[in-house]
Protein: Methyltransferase domain-containing protein
Amino acid sequence: MTPRGTPGFEYAGRIPSLAEVYWDTEYAQGRLLDLPPEPLVEDILSAARRFGLTHDEGLYIGVGNGRNYLPLVAGGLDLVGLDISAVGLAEIRKRAPERAHRLVHGDLGALPADARFGVVAGINVFQHGTREQAHAHVRAALDRVAPGGLFAIRVTAMGTEVTRPYEVLGEHDDGSRTIRYLPEDRDAPGITSHYFSRAGLAELLGGHDEVLPLRDDRTDRATGKRGRWRRWEAIVRRGYDF
Structure:
């Protein structure tokens, strides 16, 4: 698939969403640039090699400014990079100009409707929005996986220590929760985030073969910040008859 072109083509002329403005601001300030890639990157590369998918076209949803995208490409994957942040994509183009033609500004709707990929990855991206929006995003991403292909996911989990002012929008039957950061929060005012339960994510991934079973990852926040992150990680393989 050749991505339909230039950064911003889908979003030109429209008012940016709250999330777009937030991430443009974060990436303009250099967020994540000095951090190493997530360990899940090596798991994705290992799985792609195991199933002979390193020569297939892949898709990374939410590439940001390249923290995980560039190591995956360096590891041998040919990934289309998708993100709503023009600033993040501009940073990738600056660091890896040879990848410019593989970057798309927008969401999944910016890709051809029939495009399918051997590897689809989304790391720390699918939790944005309400439960309904987050689950719809995961299902839409899974639909982009070609038969026999891999889907890798990492999302914020219940048990994360939320240290900023917020309100609870919903407590859900699967044990998950949706919150919205309050206007007085200078970091993410008004941003909505869904905290996945194991049961909620397992249901979404059901019917696919486990390659990396759901893993509970707990890490400290960045230096100088209190609290811990908790995230679910998994890699599944889409069946040929799914």
Summary: The two ends are 22 Å apart (CA to CA). The longest helix spans residues 131-142. Residues 93 and 99 are 7 Å apart (CA to CA). Residues 22-237 form a domain with the Rossmann fold fold (CATH 3.40.50.150).
